[in-house]
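Record 1 of the preview.
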Amino acid sequence: EDKYGYIWLGTVNGLNRYDGYGMKVYEHRFGDTTSLMPSAVRFMFCDSHGRLWISFMNGLMEYDYERDAFRNCNLGDATWVTQIVEGKPGTLYIATANGLAKLNTETDQVTWFDSLNTVGRGEASQVWGIARHRDTLYLATRNGLAAFDLKSERHRPIKLPPNVELVVRIAVTA
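->
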């Protein structure tokens, strides 16, 4: 549920908004840059400012409540945006098949964390899940689990039991 009380439902064909009475359907419209991407909805996130972010297999969009339209957020060559969490207000951390990205939502500046050996770029850098606990992001990557400190923006690997081959989702409780 967002700040206006809408419930959003992501589907393989688009996005649906339920207001308690009826459903409004949003789909990709060829040639319309303010419509959804032509891809299945992967994840949705409402940030601390009440903005709705929608991730797709091939990118990220923000919903513009005033215009009832969508804005593409250029993440470069990012594919398969799997999850989003907020650091400080105005900063989103985005898990993708290309690694971990940080988006400044005020300036649209994107920072990729290329230097991290468990969260670099390319196939080995895939981040499938991300969860925040205080000042730490926990990253489920192709190479295992990592703890990413939000203050220093450095990570440390977390040793997993030998029978765990791949972590694909992660959840943290308070």
